[in-house]
UniProtKB/TrEMBL annotation:
InterPro entries: AA/rel_permease1, AminoAcid_Transporter. It is found in: Cell membrane. GO terms for biological process: D-alanine transmembrane transport; D-serine transmembrane transport. This is Solute carrier family 7 member 10. One of its GO terms (cellular component) is plasma membrane. One of its GO terms (molecular function) is L-amino acid transmembrane transporter activity.
Length: 497
């Protein structure tokens, strides 16, 4: 009982902290999603041993922390919502920014949302189909219903969306807390043979550098979301204080939780059992929780539900920022007059995700998304160094040591280089999709003398029937309504469509 209390108490404390801070809950809630319930299998498969897999998880958290510190400097130096896209556009110009926006809107965020939604439906349906994989159509239908519901929530109220994020962040930590507590009990009973150095570093096969790089890509999917506060910088109260504070708390906490969760998995399952499992947490629950094993898929479903909500909240702001800069149709820069929510951008994100749901499989998408993610991170952090050289006298409320971005970029270059060597098709397709944005940029953005019919279409004339809709466009004015901890600065823009 003492061991259980010592294990549960820190999580209760963390849940209280989460509930009291929107920035912390948004950061932690976006990181902890489906990844920790999917990626352990991929990390172990590519690393080849339990010991190296655990090292990959710890180093993955350290790399995410370095990247977060760089983004904190960018977030307060260029205080615009939109994250990578806004920073790269400001530093390198429209073309590079548009290419990041193009790959993110077209593939990166819809695919990530699709993976999380599929994980949600798989874990919800697992108890209904205990002896087989849930049917294809059932998982897609449930994923779509979940996406539509949360899109409606985000369209209806910022307050309700952030409240859901708070509640389900607590649920995520509770789910992982259950896994960790049960794993600690197993270790206290002496079931830790697989974690001893002699056994943990027994390689099923000797991994190449390229395979280790792919293991990092798998782990990076679980850590993705560490930069999402930068997508809503304009909506965060006192970002100069809250951005670094959220980073200092959330990244070490998530790394600690992920590492302990994997230790718990390995205390109950052999590497062979984990690699053969389609739902790692369900297999873990079936082995250790007996008649209470149904708790595990429910807990994972709650965790992924909150992850979908967080991704919708932040990815819609990227579409919004792109439209505000003129890189996407101006319709996406409109928000509801009363609810202050970017409804067109949310509907765009939801639609793109549903399309990906119909054509993709969960595990095949992770390396693909992670490669594009890391490519975007590296370009953005390289922009930080260039911006320091370009504007050395610019006031920076946060200024990280030069060693931080340099270390990150060295790791980034090695990771992407070896990943491209090991999976040339998967990574190459990501590069090709990003480069297809070049002609789109010159035709849709750079070409200013387009025919009026094309300009009208891009501007949103297909929605003429909504002629009484009033919208707001974020412009940093003095009008500052506050919604549950977020400071939203809007200027009224009456648009009779």
């Amino acid at each position: 009982m003492v061991i259980l209390f010592l294990a549960i108490f820190p999580f209760c404390l963390f849940c209280v902290c989460v509930y009291s801070s929107n920035t912390f809950s948004l950061s932690t809630g976006n990181i902890i999603g489906s990844g920790i319930f999917i990626s352990p299998k991929g990390v172990l498969e590519h690393s080849g041993s339990v010991g190296l897999a655990l090292i990959v998880w710890v180093l993955g958290g350290c790399i995410a922390a370095l990247g977060s510190l760089c983004y904190a400097e960018l977030g307060v130096t260029i205080p615009k919502s939109g994250g990578d896209y806004s920073y790269v556009t400001e530093i390198f110009g429209g073309l590079v920014g548009f290419l990041l926006l193009w790959s993110a809107v077209l593939i990166m965020y819809p695919t990530t949302l699709a993976v999380i939604a599929l994980t949600f439906s798989n874990y919800v349906l697992q108890p209904v189909f205990p002896d087989c994989v849930p049917p294809y159509m059932a998982t897609r239908l449930l994923s779509t219903v979940c996406l539509l519901f949360l899109t409606w929530v985000n369209c209806s109220s910022v307050r309700l969306a952030t409240r859901i994020q708070d509640v389900f962040t607590v649920g995520k930590l509770a789910a992982l807390g259950l896994i960790i507590v049960v794993g600690l009990v197993q270790i206290c009973k002496g079931n830790y043979e697989g974690l001893t150095p002699q056994v943990a570093f027994e390689f099923s096969r000797t991994p190449s550098v390229g395979q280790v790089a792919l293991a990092f890509l798998q782990a990076s999917f679980a850590f993705s979301g560490w930069n999402f506060l930068n997508y809503v910088t304009e909506e965060v109260v006192e970002p100069r204080q809250n951005l670094p504070r959220a980073i200092y708390i959330s990244i070490p906490l998530v790394t600690f939780v992920y590492t302990l969760t994997n230790i718990a998995y390995f205390s109950a399952m052999s590497p062979e059992e984990l690699l053969s499992s389609n739902a790692v947490a369900v297999t873990f629950g079936e082995k250790l929780l007996g008649m209470f094993s149904v708790i595990m898929p429910i807990s994972v479903a709650l965790s992924t539900f909150g992850g979908i909500n967080g991704y919708l909240f932040t990815s819609s702001r990227l579409c919004f920022s792109g439209a505000r800069e003129g890189h996407l149709p101006s319709l996406l820069a409109m928000i509801h007059f009363k609810n202050c929510t970017p409804i067109p951008a949310l509907l765009c994100c939801c639609t793109a995700t549903i399309v990906i749901l119909c054509i993709g499989e969960t595990h095949n998408l992770i390396n693909y998304v992670s490669f594009i993610n890391y490519l975007s991170y590296g370009v953005t952090i390289a922009g930080l160094l260039y911006y320091r050289w370009k504007k050395p006298k610019l006031y920076r409320p946060i200024k990280v040591n030069l060693l931080v971005p340099v270390t990150y970029l060295m790791f980034w270059a090695l990771l992407l280089g070896f990943s491209l060597y090991s999976e040339p098709v998967v990574c190459g397709v990501g590069l090709v999709i990003m480069l297809t944005g070049v002609p789109v940029y010159f035709l849709g953005v750079y070409w200013k003398s387009k025919p009026k019919c094309i300009c009208d279409f891009i501007g949103g004339c297909p929605l003429q029937s909504c002629k009484y809709m009033f919208v707001l466009i974020i412009a940093g004015s003095d009008f500052s309504p506050k919604y549950f901890g977020f400071d939203l600065r809007f200027t009224v823009y009456h648009c009779a469509l």
